[in-house]
Amino acid sequence: MNDDQLLTAVRDSFAEVRLDVPVEQTARRGRVLRGRSRAYRAAGLVGAAAIAGVTAVALIGPGRAVPSGSARLDAWTVTKGVGGTVTVTLRQLLAVTGLQSALRADGVPVRVVVRTGMPSSDPTPPSGCRRVTMSDVANANLQEKILGGAHANMAAFAHGIAITFDSREIPAGVGIDLVIQPLSDRHFGWSLDLVQASPACTG
Amino acid sequence: MSIDSAGFAEFYQATRDDCLRVVFASVGDRPTAEDLVAEAFARAWARWHTVSRHPAPAAWVVRTALNARVSWWRRYRREVELPGSGAETALLDGTDGALDRSLVDRALMAALLRLPARQREVVALRIFLDLDTAGTAQALGIAPGTVTAHLARAMAALRAELSGVIEQEQR
Questions:
Q1: I need a labelling partner for B41 at 20 to 30 A (CA). Which of A61, A82, B66, B96 fits?
Q2: How many beta-carbon pairs under 8 angstroms link A with B?
Q3: CA torsion angle for B76, A166, B121, A39 (degrees, to 10)?
Q4: Is A138 on the interface with B (CB under 8 A)?
Q5: Residue B35 is nearest to which of A28, A46, A143, comparing CB atoms?
Q6: In Å, how far is A4's CA from the nearest CA of chain B?
Q7: What is the pLDDT of residue B100?
Q8: Taking CB atoms and an 8 Å limit, are A19 and B34 in contact across chains?
């Protein structure tokens, strides 16, 4: 197989991938952007667009850390896997009491917060909790390592929000700020940022 | 609604699919790619007087989309829709769009996704925007020699992974 054949095969496999957004919609959005003086405000909106589903769960009990394979439906579960992975599954939005402690006990330096009110794409950390000082690219790369890639995490959404951390990839001095935000009666969101590990922030 | 940026509509119609393909191949997630590309085109519209003079406006759109992804990762964020919207059905069916198996050959996409990110970008720009080495280097902000090296490695890896699949299809 020569290069042309190979490139043609790849090109052909994408033939049906098309962008269906009408130009009028793009122009409307463009007008909004044109009216803004700071382009970074738009960048934040891009991240808010991904949607995933979650299955309804009735009669949910309090959360707990469980051995792998548990079938009980708790508000949340934390499962320690092989090789330093820790998976948290959230099934109920506001019942996260004890979740932070369970994650910390399994080696994930984390602050877990439920924040109601107007959602923000970039919520401010509390006093005494500072973001890590690194470039956006380095931050993104590190988050991808810790989370094992966005797609690996998204694939586990069928029965709740499942987030898997690779605790081995969390450098010393770095912690995780996990914010859960109810957005409406039908949507909620979670966001994650890297912070400096400190007693005030990650225990 | 009238499109008051002369020439943008034609540019959009001619390039939007290929820009989506590049970003889809680069990020591996179609809904995310669609969001990023739509936003990048909107930014192109807002700055059309400048972007239209760019030597490769489609490459500008792709670069903007990929840069926006970095901003998005800076604060990793997901929204979840509660039951009843139909989204959960798609997920349970395994058709959430993370890998659109009805549109993209599984083997090709799997092989592409196994490539390092920069190699994926180089291959996608070469295939879908038909950029040469210099244009690819400019779009990605890397040296032409680096583009050549990435492309050679990517082609070798793809060839090794796909040769069996292609030969089977040709029988």
A1: B96
A2: 238
A3: 20
A4: no
A5: A46
A6: 10
A7: 42
A8: yes
DSSP B71-138: HHHHTEEEEEEPTTSSHHHHHHTT-SSSS-TTTS-HHHHHHHHHS-HHHHHHHHHHHHS---HHHHHH
| Residue in B1, B70, B83 closest to A28 by CB | B1
pLDDT in tens, A6-28: 888 888 888 888 998 889 888 88
| Sign of the dihedral defined by the CA atoms of residues B2, B3, B7, B13, in that order | negative
Q: What is the pTM of this model?
A: 0.52
Counting other chains too, the contacts that A84-87 makes at CB distance below 8 Å and 24 or more residues apart are A84/A166, A84/A167, A84/A168, A85/A148, A85/A164, A85/A165, A85/A166, A85/A167, A86/A164, A86/A165, A86/A167, A87/A156, A87/A162, A87/A163, A87/A164, A87/A165
- A 10 A CB-CB count for A100 gives 17
ipTM of this complex:
0.74
Give the Cα separation of B64 and B39 in Å (integer): 9
Q: Chain B within 8 Å of A1 (Cβ-Cβ)?
A: yes
Query: Cβ contacts (< 8 Å) between A88 and chain B: which residues?
Result: none
Q: Provide the token pair at A200.
A: 């005030």
Question: Can you say whether residue A149 is alpha, beta or left, with left for phi > 0 and alpha for psi between -120 and 50 degrees?
Answer: left
Q: Chain B: residue nearest A156 by CA? A: B91
Among A residues 47-66, those touching chain B with beta carbons less than 8 Å apart: 47-56
**Measured between CB atoms, which of A24, A53, A190 is closest to B88?**
A53
The answer to whether the Cβ–Cβ distance between A47 and B42 falls below 8 Å is: no
Q: Is A66 helix (H, G, I), strand (E, B) or coil?
A: strand
Query: Six-digit token pair at B85?
Result: 């919207």
Instruction: Indicate if the pLDDT at residue A146 is higher than 50.
Output: yes
| Radius of gyration for chain B, computed over Cα atoms and rounded to the nearest angstrom | 18
Report the alpha-carbon distance of residue B29 to residue B140 in Å, rounded.
20
Beta strands in A92-160 (DSSP E): 110-114
Q: Which residues of A45-56 are buried (b: 16+ CB within 10 A; e: fewer)?
A: bbbbbbbbbbee
Unique residue bearing structure tokens 């738009």: A42
